[in-house]
Design a protein that fits this description.
The chain is mainly alpha-helical and about 170 residues long. The chain has one domain: Four Helix Bundle (Hemerythrin (Met), subunit A). Helix content is about 55%, strand content about 5%. The chain contains six helices and two strands, in the order αααααββα. It has helices at about 5-15, 30-35, 40, 50-70, 95-110, 135-160, and strands at about 120-125, 130. Strands 1-2 form a two-stranded antiparallel ribbon. The longest helix has 27 residues, at about 135-160.
Length: about 170
């Protein structure tokens, strides 16, 4: 496998990997989002300030902005009215998942078009700093997995079952 192919594999695993199929356990963003029902999509855990919906919208806007600056024109800003298709509190769950899949496919296409040598090339971040391409891709992988864990935890808190399966 080339380095780009390895990155694509890891990028896809963090976004939509199946994990352990026998027990339906996964670290991926989509697997955790798909386990959320409509009742928990906008619910807040006790003392919480973020919903699963708001986390999903955050992940999508970050994917869009990282891709815009690393591979696109780098002209959009966080304040652009179309950066997020719905305001927080109004995003339909199924359509939000489709939006995330589309954003991931766009990003994946840009990464797939790279050569291994381009992974060292500096690219612009959405905050203006130049970073290696491989660093940007790794950060997006970590971002998906990080927020997948948050979604998993919030869902567990809302279900009243925040414990380890084997505990």
């Amino acid at each position: 496998m080339t380095a780009v192919e390895e990155l694509l594999y890891l990028l896809d695993e963090s976004f939509s990997g199946k994990g352990i199929e026998e027990t339906d356990e996964s670290q991926s963003l989509l697997a955790n989002l798909r386990s959320v029902d409509d009742a928990r999509w906008r619910a807040l855990p006790a003392d919480g300030t973020r919903t699963i919906e708001s986390i999903a919208l955050h992940v999508g806007t970050c994917k869009l902005m990282y891709d815009e600056y690393a591979f696109g024109a780098g002209m959009r800003t966080w304040g652009d009215p179309d950066i997020q298709p719905w305001p927080t509190g109004e995003a339909p769950r199924a359509e939000t998942v489709e939006w995330l899949e589309d954003l991931h496919a766009t990003l994946r296409g840009h990464v797939a078009a790279l050569s291994d040598e381009e992974l060292d090339a500096p690219r612009k971040t959405n905050w203006g700093e130049m970073r290696e391409t491989r660093w940007l891709v790794a950060t997006l992988m970590q971002h998906d997995t990080y927020h997948a864990g948050e979604i998993n935890h919030i869902r567990s808190l809302l279900a009243g079952d925040d414990r380890w399966r084997w505990g």
